[in-house]
Amino acid sequence: MWLLGKDIVGSPVGAPAHAELDSKPLSVWVEENKQSAAQPEKAAQAVVDFFFQVENYPSDISNLSTFFAAKSVFVRLSNITETGLIVPKIMRWQNGTGEITHRIYDKIQSFGGHIQFHRRVRTQSLVAILTAA
């Protein structure tokens, strides 16, 4: 999957293979390709687990396009260094969840709203009460 994503990212936008991969459900691609793995069933389950646990998608991967999935896997895993260090680009937002929190805060304030934080904002413990002004 990572190699397919690498090919997608390295090819010109709109390449003919992109349309074919975009129309192919990920579940079909996994079934077609799992035999190339040492443990086919575990490899297939690893793909499901990745999208369910890491990307937070439903465990039914038949609704994901192979194009989207392969590109996502390549981008996400390419930002992990050889030592296992995860660089900020691995987060769903460029600078981590703090960036999206600040954008929400700014937008609410621009509409005249008010946000009162009961704790210091952290990735794992964001507790805020949003109240309209």
Describe this structure in words.
The protein has 133 residues and is mainly α. It has two domains: 2-90, no CATH class; 97-131, no CATH class. It is 50% helix and 6% strand. It is built from six helices and two strands. Strands 1-2 form a two-stranded antiparallel sheet. Helix 1 (2-10) packs across helix 5 (66-78). It starts with a helix and ends with a strand. Mean pLDDT is 77; it is low at 121-133.
Short descriptors:
133 residues; disordered C terminus; two-stranded antiparallel ribbon; mainly alpha; 2 strands
Helix and strand layout, with pairings?
Layout (H helix, E strand, L loop, with lengths): L1 H9 L5 H8 L2 H8 L6 H15 L11 H13 L18 H14 L3 E4 L10 E4 L2
Antiparallel strand pairs: 1-2
Helix pairs in contact: 1-5
Compact overview of the structure:
By secondary structure, the protein is mainly α.
Estimated structural class: mainly alpha
Major sheet characteristics: 2 strands, antiparallel
How much β-strand is present in the residues? 5-15%
Q: What is the number of independent domains?
A: 2
The separation of the N and C termini measures 49 Å
Number of helical elements: 6
Poorly predicted residue ranges: 121-133
Report the mean per-residue pLDDT as an integer: 77
User: What is the H/E string?
Assistant: HHHHHHEE
**Could you state the oligomeric state of the chains shown?**
single chain
Indicate the percent of residues in helices: 40-55%
**What is the alpha-carbon Rg in Å?**
19 Å
Instruction: Name the shape in a single word.
Output: elongated
Query: How many strands appear in the DSSP assignment?
Result: 2
Major β-sheet strand ordering? 1-2
